[in-house]
Amino acid sequence: MKGILKKISQINFGLLSPEDIRKMSVTKIVTPDTYDEDGYPIEAGLMDPRLGVIDPGLRCRSCGSKGGDCQGHFGHINLARPVIHVGFADTIHKILRSTCTKCGRVLLTESEIIDYKDKLESKLQNQESITTIIKEIYTVARRDKCPHCDEEKEEIKIDKPISIVEGNYKLTSSEVRERLERIQEQDYLFVGVNPEVAKPEWMVLTVLPVPPVTVRPSITLETGERSEDDLTHKLVDILRINQRLKENMEAGAPQLIVEDLWELLQYHVTTYFDNEASGVPPARHRSGRPLKTLAQRLKGKEGRFRSNLSGKRVNFSARTVISPDPNISINEVGVPKMIATEVTVPVYVTKWNIEQMKEHIQTGPKEHPGANYVIRPDQRKIRVYDETKEAIIEKLEPGYIVERHLKDGDIVLFNRQPSLHRMSMMAHEVKVLPYKTFRLNLCVCPPYNADFDGDEMNMHVFQTEESRAEAKSLMRVQEHILSPRFGGPIIGGIHDHISGAYLLTRLGSDFKEEDVLQMLKKSNIPFPERQKGDSWTGKEIFSLLLPESLNMVYKAEICRKCDECLRQECKNDAYVVIESGQLKTGAIDERAYGAFSGKILDSIVKDYGTDKAREFLDSATKLAISGIMKRGFTTSTADEEIPREAKDRIEELLSKSESRVEQLIDAFHNDELESLPGRSLRETLEMKIMQVLGEARDKSGEIAESYFGMDNHAVIMALTGARGSMLNLTQIAACVGQQSVRGGRIERGYSNRTLPHFQVGELGAKASGFVHSSYKKGLDPLEFFFHAMGGREGLVDTAIRTAQSGYMQRRLVNALQDLSVQPDGTVMDNRGIVIQTKYGEDGVDPAKSDYGKVADIDRLIDEMRIKSKVGK
Amino acid sequence: MDIKKVVSVVKKKKADFPKSIIEEIAEASERHNLKVKELEKLVDEIKKAYDRAEVEKGEAVGTVAAQSVGEPGTQMTMRTFHYAGVAELNVTLGLPRLIEIVDARKKISTPTMAIYFEEEYGTNEEFVRRIANRIGKIVLNDIIKDFNVNYATMSMTVEIDEDKISDKRLEYDEIIAKIEKAFKRVEINKNLLSFEPTISESKHAIRELRLLADKVRDLQISGVKNIGKVVISKEGSEWVIHTEGSNLGAVLKMEGVNKTKTSTNDIHEVEKVLGIEAGRNAIIHEAQTTMEEQGLTVDVRHIMLVADMMTADGSVKSIGRHGISGEKASVLARASFEETGKHLLRASIRGEVDYLTGIIENIIIGQPIPLGTGSVGVVMKERD
């Protein structure tokens, strides 16, 4: 950092007076043309060289600096007749309505004036918005008679967008301006004009500033043809009409023609400011595309504010497809060599690292741990070439900056859009790898919401030491294992990590010692000091990962929620007991270290810190993977095969349910159905049918389930929480069930029937989208069609939801972003208004809490007692 | 162990616990039958945990809260209607409901109330049914046995069903009074009412008769304003009334209604009847139940912050351009959110000044933001 850092302390807003515009102008623009035949800019034309230069070779005629350094200079156009500024048309109307035509005073009585003056001044002193008071004045001051000079006032209306009509007479812009001029300065405040920066008459333009060419650069097409910016086009229109108006006025043309031209000038100036103003047909390009004028440049998502000021394009970033790598740590990211040789880290050369830097330069820009640029102490940037590297090395001395390639251990920022929460941008350590994809550990998929079906992610390289230090202590992946949303882990094992751990630790899984050692080596777990020389149980292996002082008891995901819990004697091995870091009973599954619900992981982060948690997660996932690889794990439709007998039972059940539906329908037709309170008969019927069919699917699922055992891989995945659910399995094996559109059975399509295959008014199960078949058996054409209807609704739903929730989140973030915790523990916004006297009523950070609580008191007590027992 | 004892131990240990934690400790110590020594040790442990879990100064709690509330939005269902609690009533849930809450809509799509009763009445089914009929909307059509429109004589007769009246616990006299008040040309003969239309032009006679028939059927005999259907259900041993539509002010005035448990899902109504603090709690409660119903866990603190921001100045304000975001102090912050042109133009004639204290302003001008590590500076002390 060279020199003093200047801080902008405030920005003042105000109107430009005609004098200001003339004063800041470097030239008057009169010619509506840009370039002459030779391609040189015309003097006093829209591309006048005094307005600034863009081409890097030329020098600016006004300030003398080179192209690129000169930010440009304004010119001006003297308008032949005054013109109303569109943006202020509404305000002008309101001001005219609230002021006297004759004496120019605001239409408030003396007492009201004193009253409002007090109110306004106190608001201004507190820097509060005066808009509400001004609005009130606008309504109060709508009088028929001036309280100061008793002049009768005619109704003034606005004819959108810009015509102001008094009675039946349309005021010309000059008349509007004259009236605004008549308003006395003491009254400015009451009509919402700050006398220090603006005068009402400035809202009617007599001079138009012409922005410098840097604002509206022309582009040269490949054909050599010049294409002008939309603003330039608009300015040409304005100039042309202005010129014609002036000529006509000087020639003494009839009033009618002058007025027409004036109107046209008003139109062009209006669209120059805002081409989407209501009531004005948008000005169009030759091709028919509406022009993008001043307001359009600022407004909206692609506008200056949101696209160029609130967010900016950056250097030192990379984007590519992601793919998984179970062998790197959760803290790491695999960066393709190609990217690592392109994005760089600036390193200050000191006497301690000069040799190393020389080596980097020696390697050159093409080989991997090389360097691309060297910045000399005089800020000159020199590119490193294989030919010049020797010369650069010779000159290198402390004070230089070397932009060296990314290498292992560097900290980078990694991000996947949509960045919905802070875990969407985390800092990773670089690991340079071959091939062309970013590699990431599978445990960080949940926070990024990433999968590998073609997802791309972005990487940013920090350029200062400060940012690297902050990223390392605040943004690293291991610091974000716990989600601030609910105070539990959001990073954790997924899919095969979970089925692997289950297979490893379930009852009756033993391993030969040599296999065990192999697995431990693979998972970077230190060998136990004493080797058993005998076979190991999976639980013993997993216990090696656990901290020695860990004690906990919880129910695993595979828990079937029996009526009476057998605790340690659980048949499913779902009662997990860990004593002094030894897994006594229970199998490891999603509740142990899965993302969103991992209990063991959760307590390791909270009690032993993030470093330990990272180690645990890295080793545990690798152990699970090596465990699953020892045993083998695969699934296919064979997993959902059920015996003939089961199929018959399901068939019987379904046909029984379908006939039950028929009975209900008959009862409905015979008026025997009793309606539920507050429901019509038809609604009651629907509800009952839905209930019967829902039960039918559940029951058929239960039948299918009873034929599945824990040796079935699909079932293991569903029950341990690795992937899929029992519902998925029953839909494949037994019955797909009722398809729904808009929360009910399917009823649209043809008049009074869903498809022409059914009777008019048919209400049966099949006719309203009950899919009797299973996925495995296959759907018949009608079922397939209903299924597609339900599926389509799901897709539409998702699309709408993303848009809606995205906007909601943008609003929430915008409303709350200025809040922060003050040194005294209160929460304030940037105006200094206290929102909460203590954050969250107890000052606890949810990200550091135990699922929202300070601590699990019951567990604390249990642990305390165990400790004191051991102590005795 | 009572709270006082816990408070004294906490004081002795110089711990500054909020009330909620003290209550929790008291409950736990009762459950586990803690000795004083153990309690002291527990307080020590909790103090350690509390210090560790304290929120960092300068933390951008607002952004974290907004993200935590907004992020699960993508996982919520769009299904507008769902059956909550009582199968007979439709209640808006999921993302649409959440949006409704943060928008602070004046007219919510499905207002509903849960009316509870004082202990002595709660188990009295007869009493609850009577109240329910006074609250719920009942029209004449609900209590008639026979309805006869005679186009020949241009008259209409209605026979009232006394069984239905007693079933609905209504008073015959009150009904008659209501009918007489609403219709001038009516003859009452015990249960038989005959109406005569006022016919101005014979051309439209039939139409007028029909209109009158509809009017007679739709005459409201009983019910509280803005409340439609009511459903009575039993929760445990207690009878509860759920309503479609909501009018908290009127219902709370009714006899026997439990004023602490009775609730509505209309935030503005809660604010109007019970005040801004209650409004804040209503926002928290509604937002949290909406989230929980979808199986999403969001820490209360985040929702509290959203609710506190919405109610900070004494009225319920929406999140968006008509509420909080539209009233920001900074011109740049407002312009970068929505309605860019309007804010810039207004700022220019008002001569507004932007002091650049917020986040977005500092991003726009390229300065470090005043949050987190950017909220602190370094002062160098000169050596003397």
Topology:
The complex is a heterodimer of chains A (about 850) and B (about 375).
Chain A lengths: L10 E2 L5 H7 L50 E10 L4 H10 L11 H16 L5 H10 L15 E4 L3 E4 L2 E3 L1 H10 L21 E7 L8 E2 L5 E2 L2 H21 L4 H19 L20 H5 L5 H6 L7 E8 L7 E5 H4 L3 E5 L5 H10 L7 E5 L5 E3 L5 H7 L5 E5 L5 E5 L9 E9 L4 E3 L4 H4 L7 E6 L3 H11 L20 H10 L4 E2 L1 H10 L13 E2 H6 L8 E4 L19 E5 L2 E4 L4 H4 L5 H10 L1 H22 L12 H26 L11 H26 L6 H8 L5 H8 L3 E2 L1 E2 L2 E2 L24 E2 L9 H36 L3 E2 L5 E2 L5 E3 L20 H15 L1
Parallel strand pairs in A: 9-17, 10-16
Antiparallel strand pairs in A: 2-6, 3-4, 4-5, 7-8, 9-18, 10-17, 11-14, 12-13, 12-14, 15-16, 15-18, 19-20, 21-22, 22-23, 24-27, 25-26, 28-29, 29-30
Chain B lengths: L2 H10 L6 H14 L3 H18 L7 H10 L10 E3 L6 E3 L1 H10 L8 E4 L3 H4 L2 H11 L2 E2 L4 E7 L4 E6 L1 H6 L4 H11 L3 E4 L2 E4 L9 H13 L2 E3 L4 E9 L2 E8 L2 H5 L10 E2 L2 H8 L1 H18 L6 H12 L19 H7 L2 H11 L2 E2 L4 H7 L19
Antiparallel strand pairs in B: 1-2, 3-11, 3-12, 4-9, 5-6, 6-8, 7-8, 10-11
Helix pairs in contact in B: 1-2, 4-14, 5-13, 12-13, 13-14, 15-16
Word description of this protein:
The complex is a heterodimer of chains A (872) and B (384). Chain A is α+β, with helices and mostly antiparallel strands. Chain A folds into 5 domains: 85-203, no CATH class; 317-480, Barwin-like endoglucanases, CATH 2.40.40; 496-626, Enzyme I, Chain A, domain 2, CATH 1.10.274.100; 637-795, Topoisomerase I, Chain A, domain 4; 818-872, no CATH class. Chain A contains 26 helices and 30 strands. In chain A, a hairpin with a 5-residue loop joins strand 29 and strand 30 (834-836). In chain A, helix 2 packs across helix 4, helix 16 packs across helix 20 (610-631) and helix 19 (599-608) packs antiparallel against helix 20 (610-631). The longest helix of chain A is centred in the C-terminal third of the chain and has 36 residues, at 781-816. Chain A is globular and about 110 Å long. Chain B is of the alpha+beta class and 384 residues long. Among the domains of chain B are: 3-53, no CATH class; 138-222, Dipeptide-binding Protein, domain 1; 331-375, DNA polymerase, domain 1. Chain B is 46% helix and 15% strand. In chain B, strands 10-11-3-12 form a 4-stranded antiparallel β-sheet. Chain B has a 4-stranded antiparallel β-sheet with strand order 5-6-8-7. The model of chain B has no long low-confidence stretch (mean pLDDT 84). Classes of the chains: A alpha+beta (872), B alpha+beta (384). At the A-B interface, strand 1, helix 9, helix 25, strand 28 and helix 26 of A face helix 2, helix 3, helix 4, helix 5 and helix 14 of B.
